[in-house]
Amino acid sequence: MKQWWWKALGVLLLAYSIYFGLSTPLKPAIAGVNAGGQVRTTSGESVKVSVIGYNTDFRPGTRVLLKRGPLAYRAQNVKVLSPTELEADFRLLLGEKEANSLVFNLITVDQFHGFMEFDAALAVERSAGDTLASSAETGDLFAGVKFREDTGNTGLRFPYRNVLEETIRNLLLHVPQWFSMILLLLIAAIYSGLYLHRGRLIYDAAAKAFTMAGLLAGTLGTLTGSVWARATWNAWWTNDPKLNGVAVGMAMYLAYVILRASVDDRYNRARLAAVYNLFVFPVFIALIVVMPKLSAVSLHPGSGDSVNFSQYDMDNTLRMFFYPAVIGWTLIYAWMAQIQIRLDRLQIERDMRRMASNA
């Protein structure tokens, strides 16, 4: 039982993160805004705005506002077309002190969803003869709204992010692969150092096993990342410093596999592989961690001028499943490496007995 507890823990954590990661619904949100096919209107003109919700339950009484800074413009009329769609009529009058062109966020407020906002929904330009006072209002946007306890924002829900939408669940599959890969390759490098220090073949076997497990994690991370890129960037692969660094780094580790296969002598193979492993690991980290952060522009979160997931897409609900997923995947890969080490140990012992009998 002492040898199995961590394996059972890995399976349970992985099952927990995958099940709840796929079954937990996203929070209600505004998925899109369409102002009659236009993104601009002129002060004083009427405009009809269609609001598309996601996981919403729009009902009569929903307030719709266009907001910029402390000022809000309330819709003159709101019509609920379905639980996920409504229309709002606006006639915005810019005040004399307002700028010639303003970009407004759209906000909905109701008792079921609370406060939902969509950025840069509509741009309004001042008309040539606009000298009227502003139709904006200030004050508490929630005044008079009695919120229910069973609103759509309560309970266990993942955050909704425009562009990502349902693919935000891939955070629990894609990112843990890279966390696991880096840890596995670090362990492999440590075992390579131990082999050079002590010369025991079992350390070489452990270095090989953890490197192969790391390559598997990296391959799954690349595949899940490519699927994610197709869904969010509309391309399976982009000329991005993070992605290019991953491609070069994975190729370097594939060269490790080729190197091992090209040397017949067990001890020479172990020594060359250990030296190569100690060399390639810091280079790999530089390619996938350091260089992308130094680049000027990047689409990938946490690289170049983009923010990390922890700053943008992560919340406490996602963390409840993200960190167990990292631990679970790492333990599963360690289990795979342990099986390979046992097989290699048996092979080494059999070869040793054969050499002893021949002597």
Kindly summarize this structure in a few lines:
By secondary structure, this protein is of the alpha+beta class. The protein has helices at residues 5-23, 171-198, 201-232, 241-262, 266-294, 309-312, 316-358; strands at 29-34, 40-42, 46-54, 63-68, 71-74, 77-82, 85-91, 101-110, 114-125. The longest helix has 43 residues, at 316-358.
The profile of the biggest β sheet is: 5 strands, mixed
Secondary-structure class? alpha+beta
Number of domains: 2
Low-confidence stretches: none
The value of Rg in angstroms is: 29 Å
Shape: elongated
Please report the distance between the alpha carbons of the first and last residues. Answer: 40 Å
Helix content: 40-55%
Number of strands: 9
The percent range for strand residues is: 15-25%
Q: Secondary-structure element order, as H and E?
A: HEEEEEEEEEHHHHHH
Number of helices, counting only DSSP H or I runs of 4 residues or more: 7
The overall average pLDDT, rounded, is 84
Spatial arrangement of strands, main beta sheet: 2-9-8-4-5
Description:
The protein is of the alpha+beta class. It is built from seven helices and nine strands. It has a five-stranded mixed sheet, with no helix packed on it. Strands 1-3-7-6 form a four-stranded antiparallel sheet, with no helix packed on it. Strand 4 and strand 5 (71-74) form a beta hairpin.
